[in-house]
Design a protein that fits this description.
This protein has about 140 residues and is mostly beta strands. Helix content is about 5%, strand content about 40%. It has one helix and nine strands; from the N terminus they run ββββαβββββ. Strands 1, 2, 3, 4, 5, 6 and 7 form a seven-stranded mixed sheet that branches. It has a two-stranded antiparallel ribbon with strand order 8-9. The radius of gyration is 30 Å and the shape is elongated.
Amino acid sequence: MLSARTEEVADTVQWLTITVNNAPRGDLWACRVVEDALWISHSDIKKLGLHAPDDHSGWVELTALPGMKVDIDLLAQQVSIMAEAKALEGQQHLTLEKSPPQFAYPEAQPISAFTLGYTLYASDARGKRQLNAQPS
């Protein structure tokens, strides 16, 4: 059973980015920070893929949940959560399939011939040699 404080937190809501085990989790999340404690809604804890207390609703102190290390950087407006396997909700699966590319680029075609347009100028005067090349 998870032991975490749940209560209405009086401070204002801050919108922060959250990463769980170094993986970004969406855009911005509604959070409340009280001193060094991070509070998140019960439903958002589930959406983040973390195990939340079953008997609570409303705001839950995430920093008090077992198996999680929470780093809060208010200046950067981000939260980094390192969660142990027991703190994650559900199961994780590894796949060996190659993921499809995000962007489909056209396949390059071989070049059969090309020309270079340069003007060459060479001179030899009094033992000084010069060679100039300019695109035309």
